Protein: N5-carboxyaminoimidazole ribonucleotide synthase
Organism: Brachybacterium nesterenkovii
Amino acid sequence: MTSPDTAPVPVAADPACVRSIGVVGGGQLARMMIPAAIELDLPLVVLATAETESAARVSADTLLGRHDDPAAVRALAERCDALTFDHEHVPQEILHGIEDDALSAVRPGSAALVHAQDKLVMRDRLTRLGHPCPRWWEVRDAAELDAAIAAAGGRAVVKTPRGGYDGHGVRIVETAADASDWIADLGADGALLVEELVDFRRELSAQVARRPDGASAAYPVVQSTQRDSICFEVIAPAPGLDEERQQEIQGLARAIAEDLGVVGMLAVELFETVDGRVLVNELAMRPHNTGHWSMDGAVTGQFEQHLRAVASRALGDPSPKAPWTVMVNLLGGASEDLAAGAAAAMEADAGVKVHLYGKSVRPGRKVGHVTVAGDDLEDVRARAHRAERLIIGRADAAGAPDETAGPESGTAPRPRTAPQDPTDPRSAA
Amino acid sequence: MTSPDTAPVPVAADPACVRSIGVVGGGQLARMMIPAAIELDLPLVVLATAETESAARVSADTLLGRHDDPAAVRALAERCDALTFDHEHVPQEILHGIEDDALSAVRPGSAALVHAQDKLVMRDRLTRLGHPCPRWWEVRDAAELDAAIAAAGGRAVVKTPRGGYDGHGVRIVETAADASDWIADLGADGALLVEELVDFRRELSAQVARRPDGASAAYPVVQSTQRDSICFEVIAPAPGLDEERQQEIQGLARAIAEDLGVVGMLAVELFETVDGRVLVNELAMRPHNTGHWSMDGAVTGQFEQHLRAVASRALGDPSPKAPWTVMVNLLGGASEDLAAGAAAAMEADAGVKVHLYGKSVRPGRKVGHVTVAGDDLEDVRARAHRAERLIIGRADAAGAPDETAGPESGTAPRPRTAPQDPTDPRSAA
Ligand SMILES: Nc1ncnc2c1ncn2[C@@H]1O[C@H](COP(=O)(O)OP(=O)(O)OP(=O)(O)O)[C@@H](O)[C@H]1O
Ligand SMILES: Nc1ncnc2c1ncn2[C@@H]1O[C@H](COP(=O)(O)OP(=O)(O)OP(=O)(O)O)[C@@H](O)[C@H]1O
Ligand SMILES: [Mg+2]
Ligand SMILES: [Mg+2]
């Protein structure tokens, strides 16, 4: 099922070859880099805030410290040839310092990463580059917000430009009063992003890997479904996407990676609109939840691919190994005991791949994921969702995928009242 | 390509469920268990002799100590629910002590493991069970050895019953004088194993996983080719094996696992004779070199499967994910710099999967392996062998698979003069 170019390309030993990688952040994305690093024999050092964090539990080499503590991040950089990220919350100033002092290669670099850190910077840059976005406005106060809402047609999506994840920092509003708390919190230079409420048929995600020298590899475009604004189900490849549209979207993702100078994995979250357009939602420059399927479903999983890109190695074949792979997230639910649930899911279906992150269960928290691959999409989906229910401990384990699992027309983010917690960026994925 | 039984089997939380596993030995087999343990969130503790051993380099939890030091192995057992092995060199008395004191579940147990530790015990037991073996003799002195050689037809294979690996402890002899050193070393109760020199068409390997409750899963039978008595190439599934013969061999492996009470992975090394019979060569009760293909090529890799069996979890689907998967070992050669070689191999072929063990290079030492999967066997083989040559640094990297790589009629072990090194069981695989 793979079709690599098999012509031998003799390559001399690269003296600039990266021999060790530091990962800022100890969440599940850092954790899932570890198996890939072991197989490639590429030493990883994880900067985590506690020994109990997801990646720190299984890392052979952990530094304790915060992602926003310059001394901690610099100490990591000093130990490694290249620095990469579990999440996008490392302050720009810290990265600038490391880049200026050439302590280690920052991959992706600060100039690229800012577009995954700040949604206003991202919207502005993509718009100037001519990449398709929803209509958007930058607002600084209630009057500007009301004007934007009116321009958007009476309802709009407001986003805090920085620090959001899993829908924290995203809210549907009809009047500025619906975001009065965020407006009150704006500092002197602060602004909010307002977007039209996109009438989407479904959400897609396009992942590409890019090396420092510009070589890139594009994964099949996938369909992702969020539940309560959290990624819940991913189908690879996206059903019903014709080859031409697929290549167009892969081209868009490659162009963004090239335009912004991304190194490593880039995920482009997209809306497919009811009227057939494709718009960029946001960017992530790291392995992404919508790419977890590739660990089991592609010749080269996204975690291995990210490390290969960051280490300036040749990129691997991103081809799928089966006609369909479905990933379903494990979001904390009724059961505290994931091990027992996982045992039940594996007992029920020998083909399900269970990935647990070593995190304690809290309602809605991402604690793992499952994948199932096969020839028949509906069968594969049903099996993946059943496994999810068995592990999470929901009562309806024997039933069909629940109603939130399918592609839905016009799914919109639910208003969130819980404030974002900038001290817990570890849920990023 | 998977065909699991998808009927849901509700399973209650198992109070006896294994929640942590200790691995005796810090070689590459222990190392490759770690990624699987991370994904299953099953804590592993590795007993290694040095921080620099293959598994110790990447393990988050390492105890330092020797496999033949009762205190060290008991300390490991006390920390874990179940004990398993990187190699088969742990003395029986140590295992008996742990079993008697119920410090932890020993999997496989001592009574099973002895058949992988002592080739005379294995031959005797398999013969009594009626499983097919080469003709064999137990000899205690030169006169008995000469008699056995004569009975075998003038040439025979002599084996030290314990401590052998990678052909150390295996020698072709024509007279007792050819093994005079081994005879001189025999203690009062000592004996050597003599076998007829089997005229084999090729070597096969059958792997099964078995749980404590007897549930088992059989992998496709593979073909393995040794070079200088070390496993070099594995083709999965074995070419030209008809379905009936495959099931017969899988049945043999399952029967041996059941008869001996194996828990975990069992590899049955086999000869397919020129006259069409299948004979057991030897047994390994752990992940085995002939199963490395499954990490990339099967729904459930052998390391994950071993942990699932040892932890009393449901076994995973052993089905292959591609028509052919070829594994080639990386045996230390000209180049010290595996990272550069691996970079070149990945540059030449995006579909090759490289696994490095973090070991320093010594001639002939197993330092890693590669796999390639695909539809066309000759293409897949050529790609895997080219990758091997690029990594190992052999000059003929652009050529075809070398002459030792193909199935050969009558391949026999080369006489070995290097004495076995019982203090370095870490090469076991
Ligand atoms: N302009 C929009 N129109 C309609 N729906 C939107 C819009 N923007 C966001 N959404 C919905 O809200 C979800 C979360 O938005 P977004 O991806 O910007 O937030 P986030 O908190 O950064 O999420 P992530 O966890 O992906 O980082 C989207 O996946 C989509 O379902
Ligand atoms: N009776 C025999 N007749 C012919 N060849 C044999 C015989 N026994 C062993 N060999 C050859 O020698 C190789 C090594 O033998 P064996 O597997 O018993 O040794 P080992 O040192 O335990 O190897 P391993 O590394 O598999 O543990 C076999 O793979 C086979 O090629
Ligand atoms: Mg998003
Ligand atoms: Mg052998």
